[in-house]
Specification:
- This protein is an all-alpha fold.
- Helix content is 75%, strand content 0%.
- The chain contains 16 helices and no strands.
- Helix 10 packs across helix 11 and helix 11 crosses helix 12.
- The two termini are 29 Å apart.
Length: 414
């Protein structure tokens, strides 16, 4: 039975990352526009990314339990640890929610009464786009996900301590997993509509929930690949073989293609549905963020598609590490494009109405991430990594009494 030891040098590394994040946030705040839009949008961008990784890890874990999956069991502690980050993620999003209540940020156009009173479209959406729904989705929906993650974790540890020859504990896990799948499917869509889609309050997309979930899943799988390869380098997971890595590589490949399909489907609405709101949404990003607009597709589709298309590349640590790092950065850029343009548009409107034209002009030029933005991302990686490694150290790394462990130990891909 392997027990993970969270080494001092790893704690130091993640601690340094968090310090970089805090310093970057402080520097952004001190050099920001009058509304501190860059500061708050960085928290929103990274907060939604990492709470999404936690959520989709729980969703994937639940799906595997329901599907009688066994190949992943050796490293299911990673999925558990990732999903437990939901507790921190909910706190971060609740802070942003309090900003909509008390007005200490101006991220959302629908939360600006002087703008809404002149906008009949947003007025029509006001029964949903309001701070009450925002807080409800964050605390109740997010809290319910965290509650399920705690239940599955507790049953998993109980199973490890007592054994489960009669599958009694595992049947209880299936009940919670069966609850999580529809609960997560419906509530995550509503939450992400409020958190990020409503930044462009005139726009809507029925694919947005799927699109965001696909992005979360690609990032989560990439983090899982990097974590497993690192832990194996330290002597852990000796029986996780190239066959397991091959399947994770297939996940990375397949869901990168699926994400591209959803991206293209949303983009094509401009032509085949003639939806004006969709045209404005993509036109704004294409015209003002051209480099990121094309880099987003190039990094998140072309790299994983052409590198992982060959079967053998999914078994090579070098190519898996390269693609995983690329898509993590790529989907962080994707979240940048999901968040920043809407925030900039709203901030510009507010600044222009208050006569701060020079500040608005300066903000318009901010169309690519800066060093400080990457610094905030590094800080969130440090927070996530520190939490995950702390969680891994609290339980046996391999669940010795999971009834499907043997299937994982003898997993073979033809």
């Amino acid at each position: 039975m392997q027990t993970f030891s969270f080494a001092a040098n790893e704690r130091k590394f993640f601690g340094i990352c968090m310090v970089i994040g805090v310093v970057s946030l402080l520097a952004i705040y001190l050099t920001d526009d009058p509304l501190h839009s860059r500061f708050w949008s960085n928290i929103l961008q990274n907060g939604t990314l990492f709470i999404g990784v936690a959520f989709i890890s729980l969703f994937l874990y639940s799906a595997k339990i329901i599907a009688y999956s066994g190949w992943h069991v050796q490293f299911k502690r990673l999925l558990e640890s990732y999903s437990l980050f939901l507790g921190i993620g909910v706190i971060i999003m609740a802070i942003l929610g309090l900003g909509t209540v008390f007005g200490f940020h101006s991220l959302y156009e629908w939360n600006q009464p002087h703008l809404v009173e002149k906008d009949v479209i947003i007025q029509g959406k006001s029964p949903f786009l309001n701070w009450q729904w925002y807080m409800f989705a964050t605390i109740v929906f997010g809290g319910s996900w965290y509650f399920v993650s705690r239940q599955l974790r507790a049953l998993s540890l109980k199973e490890d301590q007592e054994g489960d020859m009669s599958f009694t504990i595992h049947k209880k896990m299936k009940i919670w997993a069966a609850i999580m799948l529809p609960l997560g499917g419906f509530t995550s869509a509503a939450a992400i509509w409020l958190w990020t889609m409503s930044l462009d309050a005139h726009w809507y997309s029925t694919l947005y929930g799927w699109y965001t979930a696909a992005s979360w899943l690609v990032i989560a799988v990439a983090f899982m690949i990097l974590t497993i390869i690192y832990l194996k380098s330290r002597g852990y997971y000796p029986k996780v073989t190239s066959d397991h890595m091959h399947d994770l590589g297939k996940y990375l490949f397949a869901f990168s293609v699926f994400w591209t399909y959803l991206w293209f489907s949303q983009y094509m609405l401009i032509w085949y549905a003639n939806i004006g709101e969709a045209t404005i949404y993509f036109h704004h990003r294409h015209e003002h963020y051209p480099f990121l607009f094309y880099a987003n597709v190039a990094i998140n589709f072309l790299i994983p598609f052409f590198v992982l298309l060959r079967n053998d590349t999914k078994r090579k640590n070098g190519t898996l590490i390269f693609v995983s790092i690329a898509v993590i950065i790529g989907h962080w850029i994707d979240f940048f494009l999901m968040v920043k343009p809407g925030v900039h548009y709203t901030t510009n409107k507010i600044l222009m109405t208050t006569g701060a034209e020079s500040a608005a002009a300066e903000l318009t030029r901010y169309t690519i991430p800066g060093i400080l933005d990457f610094g905030v991302f590094i800080g969130f990686i440090g927070l996530f990594g520190y939490f995950v490694f702390t969680s891994l150290a609290k339980a046996p790394l391999v669940p010795a009494k999971d009834p499907y462990l043997e299937e994982s130990l003898h997993h073979h891909v033809v």
